Amino acid sequence: MAYRRTPAVQARLDAKAGLITQAAGRVLARDGFAGLSMAAVAAEAEIATGTVYKHYAGKTELVRAVFLEVVTREVAAVRSAANAEELSAADRVSAAVNTFAGRALRNPKLAYVLLAEPVDAAVDAERLHFRRAFAETFEGAVAAGIARGELPPQRPAVTAAALVGAIGEVLVGPLAAEPADAAVIDDLVAFALRALGLR
Asked: Burial level of 19, CB count in 10 A (0-12/13-18/19+)?
């Protein structure tokens, strides 16, 4: 008969994996992708390196888990800001841009890793997946604005993808600077509104 984990054992394993993922997130936020290693994560989590390998086969798998956790949280924050249907399309997109850029500038090293730092191909695939998730948030606001006559006709998916790409590209410079230039948020909001066809 094959061994099956009890719920209590699985809960302990999940808790340990969560501890490791959180430690990896702190290492990424401090040292970037280049500075992350299984040993560094183990030291941050105050566990043996072998314990990290019990949960994650290697650096790529671990970083993918961190991307999943961190970016899911970031997408949820942007989605929450942009989903107030009582707001105009301009206000919804402005709120999304403010949230996206503001959160990035509060943790610039980690945001740089998530947006631009060279990573493994498997991790880069996760990055593209989450760009699409961010774009879907903008797309909903743009589509609603067109339907209500607030925005000129346009393809919401194209506009949304362009906004996410432009915002990420513009943030790369400020994220690498010390200290990050928070004035870029207002510039990004103004750019987004112009891109939507608003004055």
From this structure: middle
As a whole number of angstroms, the distance between CA 6 and CA 154 comes to 53
Among residues of the chain, what percentage have pLDDT more than 90? Answer: 54
Rounded CA separation 34/55 (Å): 21
CA 42 to CA 197: how far, in whole Å?
50
- Residue 164: name the closest of 121, 130, 198 by CA: 130
3-class SS string, 12-41:
HHHHHHHHHHHHHHHHHHHHCCCCCCHHHH
The burial class, CB within 10 Å (0-12 / 13-18 / 19+), for 15 is exposed
pTM, two decimal places: 0.83
Of residues 74 and 8, more confidence is placed in 74
Residue among 134, 125, 162 at smallest CA distance from 77: 134
Express each pLDDT in 125-159 by its tens digit: 888 888 999 999 999 999 999 999 999 999 999 99
